[in-house]
Design goal:
alpha+beta; biological rhythms; transferase; Aminopeptidase; phosphoprotein; 27% strand; Serotonin N-acetyltransferase; acyltransferase; two-stranded antiparallel ribbon
Length: 226
């Protein structure tokens, strides 16, 4: 994926840490909720969540372990992981594509000059489903894409039963996808990326992915997770 530095939306500037008396040692604690790009060290955790989420439903994983490592090496900035107390609970992996519609090559290739983000997979850990995490993560990811200057749209392919889920996130149907996997067929959907992510008043842009991000949880009315 392209090497870019974007602004992460909806993050307040980090405040200086209060001074601590020399005789007091602060105990390190993990952030309650953290969104950050994935790396190859996360690959096994990613694949375990993906395998459990997809094998039982469709019998196929969107990405095998070597493909997860492949995209997290080429374009980690187009991935996003949601961690709670250091544990991966949900993730998205994407790459760049340079054609109007997806073809079989889009399953394995990253086109650095492309302006379309191909979302390969969104998955939520089984113990964290039905909590609205899928829609929240997708919303944050799409807001992040708005901060990447060369990205114009996001596309994905899904089975028909997932069309209502992605429509609620703002995706529109493009038509039947040319890609088939075994006996599975898919619908191709797209989301326009334009303008800039909304920034709260008195907030500042924070570079992503150079800095891990600690974000407040967002309430949502959605209850459908993948």
């Amino acid at each position: 994926m392209m090497s870019v530095v974007g602004a992460q939306p909806f993050i307040k500037p980090m405040q200086p840490s209060p001074s601590v008396s020399p005789g007091i040692q602060r105990r390190h604690t993990l952030p309650a909720s953290e969104f950050r790009p994935l790396n190859t060290q996360d690959a096994i955790s990613v694949f375990e969540i993906e395998r459990e989420a997809f094998i039982s439903v469709s019998g196929e994983c969107p990405l095998h372990l070597d493909e997860v490592r492949h995209f997290l090496t080429l374009c980690p900035e187009l991935s996003m992981g949601w961690f709670e107390e250091g544990r991966l609970v949900a993730f998205i992996i994407g790459s760049l594509w340079d054609q109007d519609r997806l073809t079989t090559d889009a399953l394995t290739l990253h086109k650095p000059c492309g302006s379309t983000v191909h979302i390969h997979v969104l998955a939520v850990h089984r113990t964290f489903r039905q909590q609205g995490k899928g829609p929240i993560l997708m919303w944050r990811y799409l807001q992040y894409l708005r901060c990447l200057p060369n990205v114009r749209r996001a596309v994905l392919m899904c089975e028909d039963f997932l069309i209502p889920f992605y429509r609620k996130s703002g995706f529109k149907v493009l038509g039947r996808c040319a890609i088939t996997v075994a006996n599975l067929t898919f619908t191709e959907m797209w989301y326009p990326i334009s303008g800039h992510a909304y920034m709260r008043r008195n907030s500042e842009a924070i570079r992503f992915p150079q800095h891990p991000l600690t974000l407040p949880l967002t309430k949502t009315g959605e209850h459908l997770d993948v």
